[in-house]
Amino acid sequence: MKFLIYFLFLWNFKVYDTPYDAGGEITIEWEWPTQIKDKRADSVIIWRKKEGEEFKKIKKLVTIQNFYKDSGLKNNEKYFYKITIYYKDKIFESEKILFAIPKEQYFHLGRLNIMIGAFLFVGFILFFISRAKRGISLFLRKIPGLDAVEEAIGRATEMGRPILYIPGLSGVSDVATIASLNILSHVVKKAASYETSIIVPNRDPVVYLIAREVVKEALSLAGRPDLFDPDSVYYVTDSQFGYASAVCGIMVREKPATNFFLGMFWAESLILAETGATTGAIQIAGTDAVTQLPFFITACDYTLIGEELYAASAYLSREPVLVSTIRAQDMMKAIIWIIIFLSGIFGIFGKMPFNFIFGG
Amino acid sequence: MLQKQVPMFICFLMGLLLFFQFYIPASWSQNFYNTILRWILGISSFAIVLGVVSLIRHHLRKIRKKEDLPYSITLIFSIFATTLIGFIGGIKSGTLFDKIFNYIQIPLQSSMFAILAFYMASAAYRAFRARNVEATLLLLSAFVVMIGVIGIGDLIHPFVPSFAQWILDVPNLAAKRGIAIGVGLGIIATSIKIILGIERNWLGR
User: Are A105 and B25 within 8 A, CB to CB?
Assistant: First the structure.
């Protein structure tokens, strides 16, 4: 039996220090030779050596990927690389031995666009805050879901039933949860003026602790610390559907007149909202989870869509400084809208001048 | 006064540090970030103890008041029994604790998830009633998408699946992206308001 093996050179082979990393990593990149039409080699062997040493095989890849990140290296030392690609009866060797020096980087240039955007946004916020402090009033469009908060609390008072407030199922690292806790403070203050009780079951233990403090502080600020019931804010479970069944149980047994579902929700959103609808409660929901919005819109009386959840605190408080941040958001949206519009126009002619803004 | 200022100062400092950390890939910056993550884990584990204590207290009070007695007794019994079984027999695969988890908790959770199908049917019925122009548009597009993604769509006309895909990829995605841009800006604005101490309602103020 006779084997015929071809030795060929691999021309397009690059070795470089991985950009914007903590150091200790080199990227090895190659282009598949034209002979490998399906861009999938039988195997790729990566060899590495230090100065004055022999080459050692460091990795055997059976993959379609055309790069490898060699990590765990020492910074500021020279590393030499070559690769061998096996494909059917052919062996491709890198034409040259290349080297790179891993280095630690102190600024992520790839994120410069985000930094500029963030500073621009902060600039807008500070500008509109200074305007608000000078007494220049800003128009805020009506948000029916937030206008209905008072009505919903009033209804619970008239019926002599409690209010159920769900601050979402996510943790406190989720900004939607923080937005929900901000709204909770307003709801508690309003409920305190009517002496209406509020139930806040929690899925996350940290959120439970914060919600408890928010309720306690809001009642103190409303001048009714005596209304604080330590039994009204409690932790239930971290199990998603365990929590959903517990809340459904509360809705069926306690029959709250008003349900607030504000924060981050997943698959349990419809279970909660439908159960609430069957108990006849007035329901106000709000989430930034796009996939759950249709369920809330269907089963709840009012729904805060996406950013309305974040605007709620400003809307309910009507504090000029908080309201001014919404105007800053609108300005940023206008800028993004103009960029998208211009990108569309340029895109028709095959030009992409704004790609760098979005990291393209 | 201190109760008010200290959390706000910590929030401002950490917010600022983590904002700049995002732009610094150096190892010391990564180490700082990982340390913060470990701190979060540590604080969360303290919080879970307080959470479980609150749950037990809540149900003990209910038992004392004789409200929903069977549920509260079941919960208290389950908490202590499961904890005890875990401590005595361990929590490895094949232990009684593991069996309780696999044969009681998981089926219970799956049952709850399965109920979603029925809720979805009733919600769909409510959503798809053609009460106005928007609801009629929703009904029509849902009808086209549902027919398009199942095999029968292609049998009706080869155009139906591609039209269904177009609805998902163009008008539907445009609306989703519009919401996503608003949400993104809302998240940044809320974060900045909290870091700068403009928004204090999360402290109950």
Answer: yes
Please list every residue in chain B whose beta carbon sits closer than 8 Å to the beta carbon of residue A165.
none
In tens, the pLDDT along A162-210 reads: 999 999 999 999 999 999 999 999 999 999 999 999 999 999 999 999 9
Inter-chain Cβ pairs, chain A and chain B, closer than 8 A? 204
CA angle at B104 for the pair B102 and B110, rounded to the nearest 5°: 80
pLDDT at B204: 66
Is B115 a domain residue? no
* Residue B148 phi, psi (nearest 5): -65, -35
The answer as to whether B121 is a domain residue is no
Chain B interface disruption, residue of A74, A125, A183, A241, most B CBs within 10 A? A241
pTM: 0.90
A310 CA: distance to closest CA in chain B (Å): 5
The reply to whether ipTM tops 0.90 is: yes
Choose which CATH entry (2.40.50.140, 2.60.40.10, 3.20.20.30, 1.10.10.10) describes domain A6-100: 2.60.40.10
Q: How close is the nearest chain A Cα to the Cα of B187, in Å?
A: 6
Q: Please state which CATH number belongs to domain A137-318.
A: 3.40.50
Of the candidates A182, A118, A154, A167, which has an alpha carbon nearest to the alpha carbon of residue A316? A182
CB A58 within 8 A of CB A46: yes
CB spacing of B25 vs A22 below 8 angstroms: yes
Cα(A35)–Cα(A29) distance, integer angstroms: 18
